[in-house]
Amino acid sequence: MTAPDALKDLPSEHLDVVRLSSRKDINADQLNFMIATVSEQVAQLAATEGFFSPVTTVNTARDGETMVVRVTVDPGPRTVVSNVNVQVGGAAQSQSQSPTQVDSLRRGWQLRPGQAFRQEEWAAAKESGLQILQDLRYPAARIADSQARILTDANAAELAVAYDSGPLFTLGVLKLSGTRRYPASTVYNVNPITVGEEFSTAHLLELQR
Q1: d(Cα 71, Cα 182) in Å, to the nearest integer?
Q2: What is the pTM of this model?
């Protein structure tokens, strides 16, 4: 497969015509079907890298008993993020300390307008935002809805994600069982958690250390 640098990481081994190229039992009808579906498969793979209008050319030629298939891809323009809309529902909407946390989520959003759209980075950005909520106060937070609206004519992606923070969690009384390395009294003495304080992953990790 021949493609420009922008698609150098395209996993061509996922194309049937490449994946099955070493098979000796492929008949003419099967080969013709694989060749006919190359463009569709390339389009699906290219879309993960932000190319939604690739042009694929397939040429075949015989080299003795071997059929040589050459695939050339013109990816077209790359889609760029044009707008990001991040909404947070649940208890985080009303808690007095949450606006700072929600602002941090929005300010730290990883896939910003002007950046190239890639499916992997879109997924990572959503997960990173979710982690900000789950690490403090809202361990039950979840992604309620998300959408990447691709405007192929404009080569633009409009991103929207809605988080549901769920309820605010607080930490309760520390209960120990099965302690072997340290006496229970030692663990209680170094416990950094105050009963009733807001949930914090950092505090739980500090306790584990």
Answers
A1: 64
A2: 0.80
Whether 15 contacts 41, CB under 8 Å: yes
How far is Cα 142 from Cα 130, in angstroms, rounded to an integer? 7
pLDDT tens-digit series, residues 123-150: 999 999 999 999 999 999 999 999 999 9
Residue 182 CA from chain centroid, whole number: 41
Q: Which long-range contacts (CB under 8 A, 24 or more apart) does 67-70 make?
A: 67/31, 69/17, 69/21, 69/35, 69/38, 70/1, 70/2
Q: Are 151 and 157 in contact (CB under 8 A)?
A: yes
CATH superfamily of 80-164: membrane protein fhac (3.10.20.310)
50: closest CA among 12, 18, 82, 72? 82
Q: Residue 188 pLDDT > 70, yes or no?
A: no
* The two structure tokens encoding residue 78: 């790359």
Handedness of CA 13, 17, 20, 24 (dihedral sign): negative
Strands 55-63 and 66-74 come out as antiparallel
Task: Considering only the C-alpha atoms of the chain, give the largest distance between any 2 of them, rounded to a whole number of Å.
Answer: 81
Beta pairing partners, 116: 80
Neighbouring-strand partners of residue 143? 163
Gap between the Cα atoms of 157 and 8, Å rounded: 22
Tell me the one-letter amino acid at 21.
S
